[in-house]
C-alpha cells in the first residue's frame, strides 16, 4: 500500500495535504495521516500543505517518505480514535501484524526510517524502529552486537576497553 | 547543502550508531560525527532493551554508547544476581545524573543500596532477596514501592524515614502461620512477615496501594489501623491475596 503520488484532486471528503520529498517527489495524503507527525501537525493545523503549495521535507527522500506514509496511513484511524481504546482485538492484532512486517526490512532502510521518524517526530514509529533495533541487540554480547550492527572489528585499544568494561560490570554479563 | 543519499550501506549505519567526536569507527569510514544518530534516538533504543543488564552490555560497545547510558532517566533491573560487593548505588549515583525512576525486581546478592541522587523521583523495589540496607535521599523521592524487601522492624523504620512520599505501595504480609514448603522462594518469603499493627507511623501519603497477604486471618481491624495513620489519602488501592497460592481473590479500588 504505497502512498499515492502527486495527485491533485480533492475527491474525498477528507482534507488532503501534499508533502514534497528531498528529491522533489510529491506525495498527497490525508491530513489526518500526515498529522501523526508532530513536526507537520502545526503546519497542517495552520492550513499549510493544501492546494498547490505542498510542504517540503528536505531531510527525507522519496523512498523513505513513502515508507513513512505507509505507516501513517495504516495508523491514522486508530490514532484518530485517541489510541483506539475501543478498538477490537482483531484491529489491534492487525496493527501488530502490520508493525512486525513493517520493520522486517534491510538495516539501511531501518536507519533511514529512524532518522525520518525522529525528524518528523512520529512517536509510534520512533518507538517501533527503536524496539526493532533493541530486539536486534537483546541477549547478545558486545562482540555479537557489533557484528549484528555491522561495526568494524574493534581496534586493540577498543578491545581493551571492552574487556575492562566486562570486568567492571561483570553482573551485566551473567 | 546536499542531501544524504537515500540508501546507506551497512557500514555507514554502524558508523552513525557508533560515531562520536572522532571515535575510531567514524574515522575509518569517513562519516562525520554530525551524521550520527541523535542521543535521544540512542536512548530510545536503550529504553527498549528493557533491562539495565542489556543496556550496560551495550555501553561496552563504545564510549558514545557508554555516555548515552548515563543519560537514561529510567533504569530497570530484573532478575539480576549480584556477586561480591556490588556498587550499584555508586554507579547509579555517580553516572546517572538524569535518573528519575529506578526499578529493582528479583535481585539476589544485593545487600546494600545507597543512592545519592538529586533527580530520583520514583523507586520500585520488589523481592530484593538479602537486602539489608537501603539509603536514599528522602527529600526528592516522591513515589515508593516496597514489596517483600525488608524484614519486620527494618521495614517499619524505613517507612518513618520518608516524609515527602506522596505515592506509596506496600505489601503487608499478615500471617503468623509459618507454612514450610521446600522451594527457595517460599522459604525466603517466610522471612518477610510483619503485622500491620506494628506500623506506628506512615508517611503522609496521598495515593496508597496496600497489598495484603493473608491466610485466613481477620485483617479488617488492622487494615483500618493502617488507614487511620494516613489521613491525607485521596486514592486507595487495596489488593487482597487471601489464598495460599497468592491468587487475587478480591480487588477493591476506591477513588
Automatic annotation (TrEMBL), chain A:
Superkingdom of source: Eukaryota
One of its GO biological process terms is:
jasmonic acid mediated signaling pathway
Q: Name one Pfam family in it.
A: Skp1
Q: In which pathway does it act?
A: Protein modification; protein ubiquitination
Which keywords describe this protein according to UniProt? Ubl conjugation pathway
Q: Which InterPro entries match?
A: SKP1, SKP1-like, SKP1-like_dim_sf, SKP1/BTB/POZ_sf, Skp1_comp_dimer, Skp1_comp_POZ
**Residue span(s) of domain SKP1 component dimerisation:** 124-163
Sequence ranges assigned to domain SKP1 component POZ in this UniProt record: 16-75
Summarize the protein's role: Involved in ubiquitination and subsequent proteasomal degradation of target proteins. Together with CUL1, RBX1 and a F-box protein, it forms a SCF E3 ubiquitin ligase complex. The functional specificity of this complex depends on the type of F-box protein. In the SCF complex, it serves as an adapter that links the F-box protein to CUL1.
Q: Could you say which protein family the record assigns here? A: Belongs to the SKP1 family.
Q: Which PANTHER family match?
A: SKP1 (PTHR11165)
Quaternary assembly = Part of a SCF (SKP1-cullin-F-box) protein ligase complex.
- Kindly provide the name given to this protein in its UniProt entry: SKP1-like protein
- Name the species this protein comes from: Eleusine coracana subsp. coracana
Q: What is the lineage of its organism?
A: Eukaryota, Viridiplantae, Streptophyta, Embryophyta, Tracheophyta
From TrEMBL, chain B:
Quote the SUPFAM superfamilies the UniProt record gives: F-box domain
List residues of the F-box domain.
37-73
Q: What is a single Pfam family found in this protein's UniProt entry?
A: F-box
Q: Which PANTHER family match?
A: OS07G0229100 PROTEIN, OS10G0396666 PROTEIN
**Mind telling me what this protein is named?**
F-box domain-containing protein
Q: Which organism is it from?
A: Eleusine coracana subsp. coracana
Q: What is the lineage of its organism?
A: Eukaryota, Viridiplantae, Streptophyta, Embryophyta, Tracheophyta
